[in-house]
Amino acid sequence: MRKTGMVSALILMVVAAVLLTGCQKPPDAEMQAATASLEAAKSGEAEKYAQSELATASATLDQARTEIEAQKAKWMPNYDKAKEMIAQAKTQADAAKEAAIKGKETAKNEATQAIADAKAMVANAEAGLKTAPKGKGTKADLEMMNKDIEGYKQSITDAEGLMSSEDYMGARDKAKAAMDGAKGVQDQIVAAGGKIPEMKPADAAAMPPAPEPPK
Fold first, then answer.
1. Domain extents in the chain
2. Domain 108-206 has what CATH class?
């Protein structure tokens, strides 16, 4: 009888364990919430302005999915670790969204300043070109530099167009390329014996605001 009682007690303990742990359900609601936060971060352009933060959140959520599948294969699954991972992924996704907002604003400011700097550099190159020695052997060079300057002006106009469509990284890069090109023209002018006016720091605040994006 005593042996039978011990067996019965053991069975009851196993049943209790199954009831306590084996009946756990996968954290579907939590996973949906974390996934929604991740998608919100992507909609907020985190893929462009907060790539590192978004990648971290995505990796954590993937780890949570792997943990859930591993627990599903067990006789008595325990999803506590997966729930912790999901909560962490949601927090990271929310942080990625906030980082994207800040990153976009930073890119906008950088693009605005780059356009102002490029305009100043091109204007100085154009002014310096007027001082370059003119003669039979310099005509072709002067014409080429004039053509280059016009190209940089167009690049700046293109950059302003990118600003209006909120492609701030593209606008910044195009403006910087125009600025570097104009600096190259200035160097050529100086090498030819011309003079470059003293360049004043570009005042981005004095620039007219970029056109609002179409609604």
1. 2-102, 108-206
2. mainly alpha
